[in-house]
Amino acid sequence: MNLTELFFTPRGRVARGKYWMIFGIWLLLDAALRGAMGLASVWSGNEVVVAVFFWAWVSYSVVTIFPMTALSIKRLHDSGRSGYWMLAPIGCQVSLVMMLVTIFQGNFGSTLLYVGLLLITSLLSLVVFIFLLLAGEDGSNEYGFA
Length: 146
Description:
This protein has 146 residues and is mainly α. The protein is 77% helix and 3% strand. It has 5 helices and 2 strands.
């Protein structure tokens, strides 16, 4: 499997070890960018320097959303599960943003709705995380070969 197939298509399967290795590298890069942003904030005090690191982190996050989602879908496929399970973590992030927007607007009736959605999608995201930890199926399944 080449890098294009690995990161830019949700078809196929990815083994547990490869998935967690790539996820670990992604997490280390994310932590390094956040740490650099924090260090720039503390030591330089220059808003421009902090802004450069902030926008580098935001760009990294936006650029890696689809590849990491596609990789997670392949990991779910390896255990015989549908990629639609990845809608739960995405829904969790969307409901968190919507909840914060309604709080800042002072619309507390809608906030309660988004809090409920956040709780439900958070629990489903925990289920997805457990699915990502489980071993894959041996041999082939409806999503391809191991």
